[in-house]
Structures
1.
Amino acid sequence: MEPIRKESLADAVSDRVLALIREGKYRAGDRLPTERELAGQLGVGRTSVREGLRYLEKLGVLDIHQGRGMMVRSLSLEDVFLNSLPVSAIVELPEKQIRDIMHARRVLELESARLAASERTAEDLARMADLVEAQKRNLERPEEWLALDGLFHVAVARASDNEALVQLIRLLWDMLFKHSEAILRNEIIVTSSTSYHEQIYHAIEAGDDERARERMLAHLEDSQKLVLAGLFSSNHAQAPGEPPPDATADG
């Protein structure tokens, strides 16, 4: 592991430009001063300015084009979430927070399924149908199946035509992905979830928003019960004769 170094001038430049954007000095579509002008205003060399601005370009904050200058980008919701921390790789959640995330998923995904039944396109339907068939083919390959599981829920959200739902549902699913061992150990989850996905797809295809919502609710409630039971069994050694914990409680 490399030792921590003091903040570089390039870091200071990027931090200052970001602060100016947050303060409203520069807004989406505005052109920034030239490198030479920024160097003079900030009291640093042009090399530091160039490095700091290139970092903001990589983050998607700036558009930099030779001969056209530097402009503040208008970020989409997808841009915002893509530049966040890779939570699936680092998050370690206690059981209470796992329940909380599952509850939040229900709140979001019931509306996602309901909207999808009225907003879906032919392309959305084809995508969901392909994912359901792929899951059927991968029932005995749980790692592949699990990746398809997340893609199906995101596909339903995309069919809702609400980008905020897409990104939030993707984020919550990613947060639970690290705890997928409980899913992969349980064959019932794999088969029952695939069946629920097919039912959800058919309800969306038929434009039946209430049926789509009801099937999504049944799916998520059933999955929560099985996943939490798996987590409890792996994290707590149950004493002989001790009743199992209430895995359906939201905490």
2.
Amino acid sequence: MERKSLTSQHPNFTVKDLVASYKTLVAVCNVSLAVRGGSRVGIFGHNGSGKSTFLKCLIGGVKTVSGTVHFGEALIRPDFVHVNVRLGISLVPQSRNVFPSLTVERCLRIAGLRVNNRAFEQVYEVLPLLKERRRQRSGLMSGGEQQMVAIGMALMTRPKALLLDEPTAGLSPVAARNVLECLRAINEQMGSTIVIVEQNILTTLAMVERAVVLRSGEVVFDGNSSDLARKEDLWSRF
């Protein structure tokens, strides 16, 4: 299937002067950037750099913020995740939110209830493993396979943008590469914007098109992922 050019259907994120705090701790400091619809962007940085907080801000998951986040023309309202997701944004958290006692297909069916769709075939096309294992209980699957189920559940909402917080955490190198290649396929076949927070830097740089590096809540690099990967002083930038 050819990659869809659907910028109008997969809007930009536009972030302006974003500051996000937890009580007295400022986690994200004066970040302004735009994420083009249909692109693949990696957010990198050490623990405590603000990358997961920034990702949550894209869906309104942080209460105390200033500045603005827009998805297309729509304002992302802080602390109103349940409203913001209706714009076509889906977040896959680091913890694999699957139903361990249910089959893969049942997990997908439940995830798609809110939008009343039958997206199974599209999900199965881009994640064929889930079709093969659709009768298997998700709790009996490996960590990498459960991550695929979590991603498949997110896709059942037909998201225009898919946000992922460290989807390869705790996975073997092979399983991590499989997850990242599935995300590339989702982007290329469905046109969904991919914004991914990762500690698995080198492997993820090969999958994304753009890299953003945060340090102490501020952007210290924003450019082509291939340019960052080629830099001899790569690790000094984190």
